[in-house]
TrEMBL record:
It comes from Kangiella spongicola. GO terms for molecular function: DNA binding; endonuclease activity; hydrolase activity. NCBIfam families: mutH_TIGR, PRK05070.1. One of its GO terms (cellular component) is cytoplasm. It holds the Pfam family MutH. This is DNA mismatch repair protein MutH. Belongs to the MutH family. Sequence-specific endonuclease that cleaves unmethylated GATC sequences. It is involved in DNA mismatch repair. The gene is mutH. SUPFAM superfamilies: Restriction endonuclease-like. Transmembrane segments: none annotated. Keywords: Cytoplasm, DNA damage, DNA repair, Endonuclease, Hydrolase, Nuclease.
Length: 221
């Protein structure tokens, strides 16, 4: 699906506000999974499908022609984020010359279509409701914080300190393991510069930050 502008994409996304996932699945002849434990990305993939995202799993925004990344945001009934938000993988090898300005994580955060979903654990998946989508761009101050967080992480990776890297680092961006199971290992720089095996890591937005985005957009919480 082609959109003339980010606003056209937003208009279409907002037409789904108020619908439940079950209602949308019925409209698009999709099956609602019974549980999301082993299908954690299903909601985002389903919304990408109905909105016509073209990027798939490539290292670029979901709508590359618009420079817009789609992110679902699970919230509770009071509009509070329920979890941190995955952005992209943390590069663990071949990081020489990698800078914030040319990083995947920056390109994915330059413009985000947020789709909040009321998704408290006790609500059945088919009854979880789409709230009002909105477009968001970081302020210069926020991007500077992103950059500092990113550079702090890459410094740790370059020094072979990947095993000491945890979710406490970073004001907005935090690093967490990203793997379906503990056997999905990848290469990384070890303490002595040799290659080691470790769990893949991902950049995540802290829920305190996405809460602030919601506050600014809807003047709530």
């Amino acid at each position: 699906m082609q959109y003339e502008s980010p606003q056209a994409l937003l208009d279409y996304a907002q037409s789904f506000a108020g619908f439940t996932l079950g209602e949308l699945c019925e409209r698009y002849k999709e099956q609602v999974p019974q549980q999301l434990l082993h299908k954690k990305g299903w909601v985002g993939q389903f919304l990408e499908m109905i909105l016509g995202a073209t990027s798939g799993s490539l290292a670029q925004p979901d709508f590359p022609e618009l420079g817009v990344e789609l992110k679902t945001l699970p919230i509770d009934e009071q509009g509070r984020p329920l979890e941190s938000t995955y952005v992209s993988v943390v590069p663990l090898m071949n990081i020489h010359g990698l800078r914030w300005e040319n990083s995947v994580v920056r390109h994915k955060l330059l413009q985000v279509l947020w789709i909040p979903i009321v998704a408290s654990r006790e609500i059945p998946i088919e009854d979880r409701q789409i709230a009002m989508p909105f477009l968001w761009q970081p302020t210069p101050e926020e991007e500077q914080t992103f950059k500092q967080d990113f550079e702090d992480v890459l410094d740790q990776v370059a020094m072979g300190r990947i095993e000491q890297l945890d979710a406490r680092l970073g004001d907005i961006l935090q690093v967490r393991p990203k793997a379906a199971n503990s056997k999905a290992l990848t290469d990384a720089i070890g303490p002595d510069g040799a290659t080691i095996k470790t769990l893949p890591r991902g950049f995540y937005l802290r829920p305190q930050f996405t809460k602030r985005c919601l506050q600014q957009q809807f003047d709530l919480l």
